[in-house]
Design brief:
Layout (H helix, E strand, L loop, with lengths): L1 H27 L9 E14 L5 E13 L3 E6 L8 E6 L3 E11 L2 E6 L3 H11 L4
Antiparallel strand pairs: 1-2, 1-4, 2-3, 3-6, 4-5, 5-6
């Protein structure tokens, strides 16, 4: 049957194209994490620093929970979202205070990057996460 044969050829071409697209996607994707990310549930606070043109600054503290952390940064779930990319301090009672910056935010979650060198943060992490 000609119609069945044509459909089969189209399906084969589609399979070849999908396989080719998957190979392209796997070649272009590069994991940019240099340090292992650990899942945690740690109480934390984020100090948010807002500066305006008049040199007045406003500081807000937002409570939250660290959901995962590495020597480069962390994902934090906050009580209130942070919509702006601003200067932050992540305060984790178990570890200390870390100056950081917002990388991304979605709803009440925020991705942050530590301003300190990863080696410095790593020394803090291994105290409470031996397998960090």
């Amino acid at each position: 049957m000609i119609i069945g044969k044509d459909i089969q050829e189209m399906l084969n071409e589609l399979d070849v194209q999908r396989a080719s697209d998957q190979n392209k996607n796997s070649e272009t994707y590069v994991e940019n994490r240099h340090f292992r990310r650990s899942r945690v549930v740690w109480e934390a606070k984020v100090k948010v620093y807002f500066n305006d043109v008049t040199l007045k600054s406003d500081v807000r503290e937002i409570s939250g929970v660290v959901r995962d952390i590495s020597a480069n940064g962390a994902r934090v779930e906050l009580e209130r979202p942070i919509l702006e990319k601003v200067g932050l301090e992540l305060i984790i009672p178990k570890l200390g205070i870390f100056p950081c910056e917002t990388v991304w935010s979605k709803d009440s979650q925020v991705g942050i990057r530590f301003n300190e060198k990863p080696d410095v943060v790593f020394k803090h992490l291994v105290k409470v996460l031996p397998n960090a």
